[in-house]
Write a structure and sequence with these properties.
By secondary structure, the chain is mainly alpha-helical. Helices cover 69% and strands 0% of the residues.
């Protein structure tokens, strides 16, 4: 039963979209950090926080934004898809959020083990420090992962609001929302062109 649920999870488009997009969102700040040689990203330097012991890093704002998608958000979606496949029905309410929580915590555990291994290998970043996170930051990662179970809900809410703002309703499939939104955008662009004449 669980093996079939796992195979179905791997076949899910939503699983791969969240996993790959989340990893890309995680990789962008890391690539910028390596390229600039600075731990604090230039864009987020205005929101830099001081190090609090070794538990809260100076790039806290970036960490909150990124961890909402990976590993926490991607793990939450994976957990929801897995348990939904195991039960052969869509999860709702508390059950859905517990499935998301278990997926997020499992994903952050795997990611923390990768970070720990990289830290033990002592891979140096371009700024002179270790490329991987200190183990003292791992509890913060678990806290952020437990909060990231709400990311899919928030993004779904925003998607519906944006779609309804462009003339689409909150009902219908994702494909129809995309078509309605394109149609609404094109008609508004046409209105603007006609108004400028």
């Amino acid at each position: 039963m669980y093996f079939e649920a796992f195979k179905n999870m791997l076949r899910s488009r939503r699983f791969w979209v969240w996993g790959l997009c989340g990893a890309a969102i995680y990789a962008v700040p890391a690539a910028i950090r390596i390229a600039t040689g600075n731990v604090i990203l230039p864009v987020l330097s205005w929101a830099a926080t001081p190090w609090i012991g070794m538990y809260v890093p100076a790039n806290l704002v970036e960490k909150i934004l990124v961890n909402a998608f990976f590993p926490g958000g991607a793990g939450a979606v994976a957990g929801e898809i897995f348990y939904s496949n195991a039960k052969s029905e869509a999860l709702i309410g508390r059950e859905k959020y517990l499935a998301r929580l278990s997926g997020a915590l499992l994903a952050v555990t795997v990611w923390s083990l990768i970070q720990l291994l990289g830290g033990l290998l002592d891979v140096a970043g371009s700024w002179g420090g270790n490329l991987f996170e200190y183990p003292s930051v791992f509890p913060l990662n678990y806290l952020l992962a437990s909060l990231s179970i709400f990311t899919p809900t928030i993004l779904g809410f925003l998607k519906n609001k944006i779609a309804s703002a462009f003339g689409g309703g909150s009902g219908g499939s994702a494909g129809s929302v995309r078509l309605i939104s394109k149609k609404a955008v094109n008609s508004r662009l046409l209105d603007v062109k006609l108004w400028r004449r």
